[in-house]
Specification:
8 helices; 15 strands; Quinone Oxidoreductase, Chain A, domain 1; 28% strand; Rossmann fold; alpha/beta; 2 domains; GroES-like_sf; seven-stranded mixed β-sheet; 309 residues
Length: 309
């Protein structure tokens, strides 16, 4: 099969080449991939750290060509969206049925391919905070793929949403269109206290965002874009009036159960137009170096979709 292989001698660190067809386990479906969406983490760190010739890729959408032998997954011909810790940047992908969502018939699978990491991470992070109706929720790193899904989902849940971005003048209008009520450049520029924070940045911004939590509030550390450590000043984690019972939560998406249900629901919302996948780059895999460059240079705020032809 053809695949995008790690090759750090080339611009973007990837080349189109041949790889062995995957052999699915009894609880895996074999999917012919139509499209994949790139995530900043796998592009920045995966390509740099993986052995040469590796097939990476967390997100992929396509059509089932071989149903799981144990009968646990969708039938042949079913359009699906899939999540895995690799293998998505190829014509064929073997994927466990727990990480498969069913897409609506005739849906745009390029748009659906943006759902797994960005959409499911946002959904699970908001679920960890709790009911959104009437709550105040802050989202840092809001212009990225995860952030844009999170702004929409929090707004759909009835929250007052504050989006944090390094350039409110450039991105404020688009974030407000997605559902943000307030757009600021730093957590400390926001007013009041928050019931929940989705932090996609890490480092000092996470520390400052935690300080914005009110009583009973939860910060979910979703991403670590800065790769800086977090150093909390003295008394930052103390309780007290208005600061009692605050919590900081972390998770790894692939360790959750029931993701297939999440992926199915999210795919339906994208297909209906209720959720906007915010695709800012879309093209064939021969042009993947352009997409990788745009992501690494932070010129692309949103999702990049690679289509397999």
């Amino acid at each position: 099969m053809r695949a995008l292989l790690v090759d750090r001698s080339l611009p973007g660190g990837l080349r189109v080449g041949e790889a062995p067809d995957p052999v699915p386990a009894p609880d895996q479906a074999l999917v012919r991939v139509t499209a994949t969406s790139l995530n900043h983490g796998e592009v920045k760190y995966g390509i740099a750290e993986a052995p040469e010739g590796t097939v990476l890729g967390w997100d992929a959408a396509g059509v089932v060509v071989q149903a799981p032998a144990d009968g646990s997954g969708p039938a042949i011909g079913t359009p699906v969206v899939t999540l895995g810790d690799g293998g998505g940047w190829a014509e064929l992908r073997a994927v466990h049925t727990a990480y498969i969502g069913v897409a609506p018939e005739h849906a745009d699978l390029g748009a659906i391919s943006t759902v797994p990491v960005a959409g499911a991470t946002s959904l699970r992070a908001l679920d960890r905070i709790g009911p959104s109706l009437g709550r105040r929720i802050m989202i840092t790193g809001a212009t990225g793929g995860v952030g844009r899904y999170a702004v929409q989902l929090a707004g759909m849940g009835g929250a007052h949403v504050t989006a944090v971005t390094g350039d409110p003048a450039a991105y404020g209008e688009s974030l407000r269109t997605l559902g943000a009520h307030e757009v600021v450049s730093h957590p400390r520029d926001a007013s009041g206290h928050y019931d929940g924070v989705l932090d996609l940045v890490g480092g000092g911004q996470l520390v400052d965002a935690f300080d914005m939590l009110g009583e009973g509030g939860t910060l979910v550390a979703v991403g670590h874009a800065t790769r800086d450590g977090e150093s909390f000043p003295d008394q930052a984690l103390w309780g007290g009036p208005g600061r009692n019972d605050r919590s900081l939560a972390t998770f790894h998406l692939m360790h959750f159960r029931g993701l297939g249900r999440d992926l199915t629901w999210l795919a339906g919302q994208v297909a209906q137009g209720t959720l906007d996948p915010q695709i800012f780059w879309r093209g064939p895999w021969e042009d993947v170096a352009d997409a990788v460059s745009a992501l690494l240079e932070r010129r692309l705020h949103g999702k990049a979709v690679i289509e397999f032809g």
